[in-house]
Amino acid sequence: MRPTDTLANTAPNSPHGMADPAISHSTALPNRAYTDPEEWLRERDEVISKTWAGLGFSNDIATPGAVYPVTFMGLPLLMVRDQNGHAQVFHNVCRHRGMQLVAEAGETGLMIRCPYHKWGYDLSGQLKSTPNIGGMGIHEVAGFKCADHALAAVRCEESMGIVFINLSGEAPSLAHNLEPLMSRWRALAGDHFEEQLIADSGDYGAMELTLNSNYKLAVENYCESYHLPFVHPDLNTYSPLDAHYNLLVEPLASGQGTRVYDLARGDDQPLPLFSGWDSDRLKTAEYLSLYPNVLLGIQADHFFVILLRPEAVDQTRERLQFFYADRDALTDAFERRRQSLHEAWSLVFAEDISVVEGLQHGRASPAFDGGLFTPLMDVPTHHFHQWFLRGG
Ligand code: FES
Ligand SMILES: [Fe+2]
Predict the structure, then answer these.
(1) Range of 101's domain?
(2) pLDDT tens digits, residue range 136-146?
(3) Predicted TM-score (pTM) above 0.85
(4) What is the spatial distance between Cα 37 and Cα 35, in angstroms, rounded to a whole number?
(5) Which residues does residue 57 pair with via DSSP β-bridges, in sequence order?
(6) Are 301 and 272 in contact (CB under 8 A)?
């Protein structure tokens, strides 16, 4: 499917695009989609499971033998880097008596050993050792075949430094899923922008916070620039609302872009740019919510990913990772610039906390029935709701 051409969609008097009066009468997700724990689990099993959700970052499991336990909507999962360098995701539970296999991120070597009775699984999840299963010093027993008891795997693939999972195992490939977005951004950032991404694992490379809200409210807030002058007055000085446009990338992403993102603020050393970035659009930056739980931001000199990990119906862990276009960007020469970016984006995302949590409080009100989609400014949010109401 072709990405929406936002320029063709731009009305002369509105940088955001054409108004769509029909959305004013659309159904929105009801309050219970934000407040009901049972609805939260139904959403996991019936909507999110059908598609690709962001679980963690590739650099959480940087090298073979790295393990990273993560609970996703109540499911204890384990990310592993196998011996071939591929990401693997397993249910984080021993096949013997159901012990949690790994409690902390770290290096496990060639074998994942259960802490309870020390059964050992290799990095591809195969059960390889069962100490004392036949009595002290006897490690085999008649009728028991290790090959029948591999860890339960979850389908996973990586892209843009993100480990994605497909819980049902039945979605089209991740590459197929991301193609509309990738073709849009290859036209902007160059055919090889994805291979160029270098994760910053240094002091200014990441941030984490907890939101007391349903994850969908963070997605919705990220979809729109309408709140920019009021919630982000500083950002609005260098990337004002009237230079923004709406973005719809069918079928599973929406957000907004700007034509005036200033790469050269202050006297910091300018960062290396993506080598194939369109030179006519150096100040273009785009911000897309990739449904259901990944927020992406692309600029000519840096890229970031925010993973929203739902911890409860009304609580979300937000993890941000910065990426650059060249390894040089991680050297001391650019430290000041990396620090400035970290400070600037930290401010923006901190400013969003109170509104996202305020939206959550509002969802407790029986007087709110899903509210209104205004015909211009809420087009990307409406798109997200429609995706959800279709069942993903
Ligand atoms: S529960 Fe894991 S070895 Fe027994
Ligand atoms: Fe915001």
Answers:
(1) 58-158
(2) 999 999 999 99
(3) yes
(4) 6
(5) 162
(6) yes
